[in-house]
Recover the amino acids of this structure.
């Protein structure tokens, strides 16, 4: 079975270890700074609402959602959804995450090109994510190169989505740190903590993109090997 292909293991193993490291790092960094309260005493939800209000985004709501670090901005409904540990906490970690997600709302309001492109790609990437592996598996199992090519094309949409996510996330973090400093929500020492939390979170997106690229590389190599047989 191709799932235990030595070539697959050789390509994916380094990326898997990097992803594991990134996941552990973001959890440990968040946990560390979730124990450090901010001087302002504002909670994550209060910070999010303050940033939105300062930017005239009264149409964007801030609500609590379930799940650890499940924070995200919902562009379809104009809602910043914050996990309980971010919504209610006044820690540096919570404020940093809340400001980051609010940064996506600022991107949306200013029609930041990479975000708008990513939003447009969601349906295509969803189809590619759900169908590509089935078609690729069938192509490899049946040794049908044309079917494998079709699956690879579908999977490319997933890779493109992961890659375009990187500038979106990095920009949201930059906006978060800028507004936290300019609005006087956090001091310079606290901003350093936010930078560590958001930098750790960014590595998870880098890992996701690297994993997608590595998987695409494997599929392409298998296609070449199939055609050489």
């Amino acid at each position: 079975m191709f799932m235990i292909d030595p070539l697959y293991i050789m390509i994916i193993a380094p990326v898997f270890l990097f992803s594991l490291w990134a996941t552990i790092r973001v959890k440990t960094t968040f946990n560390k700074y979730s124990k450090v309260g901010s001087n302002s005493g504002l909670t994550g939800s209060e910070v999010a609402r303050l940033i939105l209000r300062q930017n005239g985004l009264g149409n964007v709501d801030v609500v609590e959602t379930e799940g650890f670090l499940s924070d995200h901005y919902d562009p379809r409904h104009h809602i910043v959804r914050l996990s309980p540990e971010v919504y209610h906490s006044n820690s540096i970690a919570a404020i940093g995450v809340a400001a980051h997600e609010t940064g996506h709302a600022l991107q949306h309001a200013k029609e930041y090109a990479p975000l708008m492109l990513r939003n447009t790609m969601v349906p295509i990437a969803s189809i590619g994510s759900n169908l590509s592996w089935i078609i690729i598996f069938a192509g490899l199992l049946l040794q049908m190169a044309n079917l494998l090519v079709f699956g690879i094309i579908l999977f490319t949409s997933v890779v493109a989505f992961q890659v375009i996510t990187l500038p979106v996330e990095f920009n949201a973090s930059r906006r978060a740190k800028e507004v936290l400093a300019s609005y006087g929500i956090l001091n310079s020492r606290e901003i350093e903590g936010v930078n560590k939390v958001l930098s750790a979170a960014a590595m998870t997106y880098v890992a996701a993109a690297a994993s997608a690229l590595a998987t695409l590389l494997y599929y392409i190599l298998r296609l070449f090997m199939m055609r050489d047989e």
About this structure: Residues 188-228 form the longest helix (41 residues).
